[in-house]
Amino acid sequence: MVRKEILTQAEHVQNGRGVVKTYHVCTKEELGEVGRLYGRVVLDPGCSIGWHRHVGETEPYYVLKGQGTFIDNDKQVYQVGPGDVCVIEDGQYHSIENNSDEPFEFMALIYNL
Amino acid sequence: MVRKEILTQAEHVQNGRGVVKTYHVCTKEELGEVGRLYGRVVLDPGCSIGWHRHVGETEPYYVLKGQGTFIDNDKQVYQVGPGDVCVIEDGQYHSIENNSDEPFEFMALIYNL
Q1: Widest distance between CA atoms in chain A
Q2: Cβ-Cβ contacts under 8 Å, A60 against chain B
Q3: Selection from A65, A53, A45, A58 nearest residue A14 by Cα
Q4: C-alpha gyration radius of chain A
Q5: Is B29 exposed, middle or buried (0-12, 13-18, 19+ CB in 10 A)?
Q6: Closest to B85 (Cα-Cα) out of B53, B63, B70, B59
Q7: Mean pLDDT (whole number) for B85-95
Q8: Phi first, then psi: what are they for A71, rounded to 5°?
Q9: pLDDT digits (tens, 9 = 90+) for B52-61
Q10: pTM of the complete model
């Protein structure tokens, strides 16, 4: 069976700026005990997901398109682009933002540890 | 922490044609009990992953780029493109191939049910 991705939009995610568009690959129900989110996230220029923490789960970001600014648990700032993986370990904080002039896209998978 | 995707290449995957390039987001060790593969798969023109089955796990494909031919468990043939999700249920067979003139890319996540 083939179906389409499912778009949801949210404002001020984790106190971030603007709108976060998420194109879901799986629903939370389909992921079951594995995790709670799997989708492609699009941040338009100026948009961000604010500083937040994951406990008992992880959320690797995999960059597909554009340029973003990733801040890790140690407040280290990384400019990330296609092919980069932002690694989040259990209990760590992070944020991500698009300070560029083009859309920034990445895959997000939140899975249980 | 930020790191790069990890490329592996394999020939004749599931008796398919040509080379399958997989850019891994997570290692098998990082996925732990969640699953065993998470990465971006690139099939160049003429390449394919042959007919195979998943038992006790699922593997949604999420198409990022190009056009591919997905054959599901009922032998139904779908032409798929960006934004399409190929759903595989427990115990089902499937195959995927690139019969186009451009590279075909999708995210693959094999997770336990």
Answers
A1: 43
A2: 25-26, 30, 38
A3: A53
A4: 13
A5: exposed
A6: B63
A7: 94
A8: -115, 120
A9: 999 999 999 9
A10: 0.96
Q: In the structure, what pLDDT confidence band is assigned to residue B113 with cuts at 50, 70 and 90?
A: confident
pLDDT tens, position by position, B34-70: 999 999 999 999 999 999 999 999 999 999 999 999 9
Q: Is the pLDDT of residue B106 over 90?
A: yes
Q: For residue B34, what is the DSSP state?
A: S
- Going by C-alpha positions, the residue among A71, A63, A108 that lies closest to residue A92 is A71
Q: Which tokens is B79 given?
A: 């032409």
Whose structure tokens read 């939009």?
A: A9
Do the Cβ atoms of B97 and B17 come closer than 8 Å? yes
Provide the 8-state DSSP code for A102. Answer: S
Which of B31, B83, B113 comes nearest A5 by C-beta?
B83
Q: Which residues lie closer than 8 Å to B39 by C-beta, 6 or more apart?
A: B5, B22, B23, B24, B25, B26, B107, B108
List the structure tokens of B6.
């990890």
Query: For residues B39 and B25, what is the distance between their CA atoms, to the nearest angstrom?
Result: 5
Burial of B43 (0-12, 13-18, 19+ CB in 10 A): buried
Q: How close is the nearest chain B Cα to the Cα of A40, in Å?
A: 9
